[in-house]
Every structure is written in structure tokens, then in C-alpha cells.
Amino acid sequence: MLNNKGFNLWADNYDKTVQVSEKNNQYPFAGYKKILNTIFNEVMQNRNSNVLDVGFGTGILTSKLYENGHQIDGIDFASEMISIAKTKMPNANLIEWDISNGLPPEITENRYDSIISTYTLHHLDDKEKISFITNLLSLLKENGKIFIGDVSFETREKLEKCRLDNIEYWDNDEYYLVHNEISFSLRNKCHFYPISHCGGVFIIENDCI
User: Fold this and answer.
1) Which of 40, 82, 126, 209 is deepest in the core (most CB within 10 A)?
2) Whole-prediction pTM
3) DSSP string spanning 14-59?
4) Other CB atoms within 10 Å distance of the CB of residue 103
5) 190 near 202, Cβ under 8 Å?
6) What is the 3-state secondary structure (H, E, C) of 112-166?
């Protein structure tokens, strides 16, 4: 798993790395643009809403929501990526924070129409993910939703097939999302929409627990 120093070094080239993987329909970023577009279109169902982005990176997705009038809070642990994002969203509330420590105290009293996270939660192990998502649910307004776009699979068997197909490049320090396992742990409305052979979008409603 990359630490924040690794992501700071990667900041300037991160978007280009994603583009190459997506263009070639390769793990881990196959379907990346469609995943982001899916989340964008879902959040845009509400006008001028309050949005929390967990792991906003260089602001590829969040800046488009910002430009469309949404109020943005964001969490990321890479200072260099935050600096890039701030140039796109000067009035957003962007917090430097490592989600392995839970949620930053600055936002625990806030409530959001949408919470989004793209290609971030795989840095938490399976148990940590469920705990973190449960904490995010408490920050949603009534009828609010969490949207997660990431390397993810419907079943553990499909994850294993992808691992074997990409064994030379597979990152064993990342913990990818599996829908039937996440859904069982949350025990309610957790929908998964596969976008590519290695990625998709989770939509989790605020009555999941």
C-alpha cells in the first residue's frame, strides 16, 4: 500500500497513469471514466447539494461537482494532490487526513446529501471498510446516499479470476470490494453496478444498518 509520501510523488503523473490503464481496458482502471460519470450523474440529481468526497485526489470528479454549484468537503492524505485540487476548487473545504484513523473531527457534525469515494477505500482492509462505511452512513441526511467507485467485483470468485489474469501487476496490499460480502455486512440496501471487468459503482442508502 502506498503511503502519503508515495502519493505525493505520484501526484503530477497520477491522472496520466489512470488514462493509460483505462485506454487499454486494463486492471486496475478499466472503466474509470464511466465509473466517475455514473457517480457524477447520480449526485447531479440534487441541485446545490452538500457533498463529501473521501479521497478526492487531484479533484477530477469533485471539481466538476464544484463547478456545478455543489458545496464540497473533501478528505485526502496526500498534500501534493490537495494542492492540485485546491487550484480547481479554491472555496472547497479540503482536509488533509488519513482515513485509516477514521473520520476527521471537523466533519463529524456535518450532514451530506451525497458522500462519494473513488479508488480510495481499497486501502482499508475488509473489516476496516465496513466500520468506515458505517461511520459514513451516520453523516448522511435523510434520503442521502453513498457512492463508491473502485476496483470491485460481484463475487470473490470474480475477484480471484481477475487476480489470476493480472498476476504480474496485482497489488496484494490492496483490499478490493466484493458486493455480496459488503452487502451481507451492511444487511440492507447496498446496490452494485458493474462497469468493467474490474470496476463498478456501489450505491448505499442511509438505512443500510
Assistant:
1) 82
2) 0.90
3) HHHHHHHHHHTT-TTTTTHHHHHHHHHHHHTTSTT-EEEEET-TT-
4) 19
5) yes
6) EEEEEEECCHHHCCHHHHHHHHHHHHCCEEEEEEEEEEEEEECCHHHHHHHHHHC
Query: What's at 7, amino acid-wise?
Result: F
Amino acid of residue 90: P
Can you tell me which residue has the cell 457534525?
Answer: 109
Write out pLDDT tens, residues 133-166. Answer: 999 999 999 999 999 999 999 999 999 999 999 9
* pLDDT exceeds 90 at position 191: yes
What is the rounded distance in angstroms from the CA atom of residue 200 to the CA atom of residue 104? 27
Which residues, in sequence order, are CB contacts of 110 under 8 Å at separation 6+? 50, 52, 73, 139
Burial of 105 (C-beta count, 10 Å sphere; 0-12/13-18/19+): exposed
- Determine the distance from the C-alpha atom of residue 92 to the mean position of all C-alpha atoms in its chain, rounded to a whole number: 18
The amino acid sitting at 22 is E
Per-residue b/e over 184-206, b at no fewer than 16 CB within 10 Å? ebbeeebebeebbbbbbbbbbbb
Sign of the dihedral through C-alpha 112, 113, 118, 122: positive
| Least confidently predicted of 8-12, 81-85, 116-120, 125-129 | 8-12
